[in-house]
Amino acid sequence: MTDIELVRAAITARENAYAPYSHFAVGAALLCADGTVYGGCNIENAAYSPGNCAERTAIFRAVFDGHRDFAAIAVVGGPQGQPISELCAPCGVCRQVMREFCDPATFRILMGTSDTEYIESTLEELLPYSFGPENLGK
Ligand SMILES: O=c1ccn([C@H]2C[C@H](O)[C@@H](CO)O2)c(=O)[nH]1
Ligand SMILES: [Zn+2]
Prior knowledge:
It is an enzyme of class 3 (hydrolase). The protein has about 140 residues and is an alpha+beta fold. About 25% of the residues lie in helices and about 25% in strands.
């Protein structure tokens, strides 16, 4: 799976976004170390706070299936029904969930507006001085 294909998978995953409150549709595609890819979308809720981000949907799907070793995630988002025009960066909660399973120095986060226009960061760049399992001796 190339980076371009991973961004494309995130664009496809975005089609399933359930965002009737924010009207902001997000898609994510998580690449596992073994090459498996999990899509995720944001799933909102009438009570607001139970809503889940696209990134965590993808990560939790993968963890449920037994994956804990991840290489990269692609994220795309923007107002529903419109072409994506701006980069969508993972929220703080999702960065912390990534920190649970991913090596901050090597896990790559692709943020794009299309499969030809995207930037790449490491988790360490997006979540410096982080707190993780090692801090609890795990
Ligand atoms: O990286 C992000 C940023 C926001 N959202 C979702 C949460 C909420 O449903 C909507 C507006 O914040 O977008 C994501 O899924 N991922
Ligand atoms: Zn999030």
